[in-house]
């Protein structure tokens, strides 16, 4: 049973992600709904999103066993995981049945489930790796997600998450970003992870190539499309306003977090 917030999130992202013309930069998406990782040579958002996945996957040392993609969107991230894992070894979860159907079309050999991140239906110690890309800011809350991740991971299993912890409540995009759990510093955010039993926590600030890179990309493509007469002045202003609101979000940073479950294998709330 979804909460009212989860229903609102599902409705918003179904309308956004499942539209045939969906693309955060005015270009059709290849199944991604994240900000991407930009370098000076990055030509478009789809490439940036693949690069973000490459950066995340480089933090995974395992290349065997089962991997869980938490909040898998419409399957772009899951498809990237097939670079290092067999499709049959990949499981993805999402609270949207509509998005899950698109995932099954995009990666038919993988396993997809309609399921919440905060209360998973998998048995204990099932997965070798848990990954989540740009979704934890929607979980209510992160603690429940991390405790569940520790439960379903095998002893020694790895977790890699791309996240944007907030230091104050955002005034933009409140329908999907309202009611944030707040963290005054990255140290307090780290403490959350450690209190959930995650060991060897590493937090990397990649705000420049990701968050700021995305905002610059949206602005640049808006100007380029206007000059090329691809879009009109109204669409141009809408994209600039969108980039400004994204850039002004009160996030501590865009971070990549890596950790592992201890070899003893007990989750912080006990084996079940």
What does this entry show, briefly?
The protein is α/β, with parallel strands linked by helices and 272 residues long. The chain has helices spanning 4-17, 45-58, 76-81, 97-106, 142-152, 174-177, 186-195, 208-227, 233-247, and strands at residues 67-70, 90-94, 111-114, 127-133, 153-163, 199-205, 255-260.
Features:
single chain, 272 residues, alpha/beta, Rossmann fold, seven-stranded mixed beta sheet, 9 helices, disordered C terminus
Could you explain how this protein is built, in words?
With 272 residues, the chain is α/β, with parallel strands linked by helices. It has one domain: Vaccinia Virus protein VP39 (Rossmann fold, 3-Layer(aba) Sandwich). 38% of the residues lie in helices and 16% in strands. The protein has nine helices and seven strands; from the N terminus they run H-H-E-H-E-H-E-E-H-E-H-H-E-H-H-E. It has helices at 4-17, 45-58, 76-81, 97-106, 142-152, 174-177, 186-195, 208-227, 233-247, and strands spanning 67-70, 90-94, 111-114, 127-133, 153-163, 199-205, 255-260. It has a seven-stranded mixed beta sheet with strand order 3-2-1-4-5-7-6, with helices on both faces. Helix 5 (142-152) links the parallel strand 4 (127-133) and strand 5 (153-163). Helix 8 (208-227) packs antiparallel against helix 9. The longest helix is centred in the C-terminal third of the chain and has 20 residues, at 208-227. It starts with a helix and ends in a 12-residue tail after the last strand. Residues 267-272 have low confidence and may be disordered.
